[in-house]
């Protein structure tokens, strides 16, 4: 019985690890003509694709669980942009990726990093 439980637990953990390797999440804001795709292809990199139709610059900010800003990138007025984040140096924890227009958060994604696994909120 113990062997069956241990085997089942290993199958679940392995399945979760593989499913995290190509996780994708996207969101669309019709009001702002904004489409954001968030892709995790490995435990060390996250890719954010931002397509927009806007006449203003957008900021992309990464914050830790305490709200401290770890990085900031800018997307120029009518650009669409793909940003790749190397998170290998970040310790295990909770992180927030935000797309901001004039101090208004248009998109926010919670990401957890733990033991080489990345989990994204839906």
Give the SSE layout.
Blueprint: H1 2-20, E1 23-29, E2 34-40, E3 45-52, E4 58-64, E5 69-75, E6 81-86, E7 93-101, E8 104-114, E9 117-120
Antiparallel strand pairs: 1-2, 2-3, 3-6, 4-5, 4-7, 7-8, 8-9
Summarize it.
This protein has 122 residues and is an alpha+beta fold. It contains 1 helix and 9 strands. A 5-stranded antiparallel β-sheet has the order 5-4-7-8-9, with no helix packed on it. Strands 1-2-3-6 form a 4-stranded antiparallel β-sheet, with no helix packed on it.
Question: What attributes characterize this protein structure?
Answer:
disordered N terminus; 4-stranded antiparallel sheet; 122 residues; alpha+beta; 5-stranded antiparallel sheet
pLDDT under 50 segments (min length 5)? 1-22
Shape: globular
Mean pLDDT: 77
What portion of residues belong to β-strands? Answer: over 45%
Number of strands: 9
* Strand order within the widest beta sheet: 5-4-7-8-9
Description:
With 122 residues, this protein is α+β, with helices and mostly antiparallel strands. Helix content is 16%, strand content 54%. The chain has one helix at residues 2-20, and strands at 23-29, 34-40, 45-52, 58-64, 69-75, 81-86, 93-101, 104-114, 117-120. Strands 5-4-7-8-9 form a five-stranded antiparallel beta sheet, with no helix packed on it. Mean pLDDT is 77; it is low at 1-22.
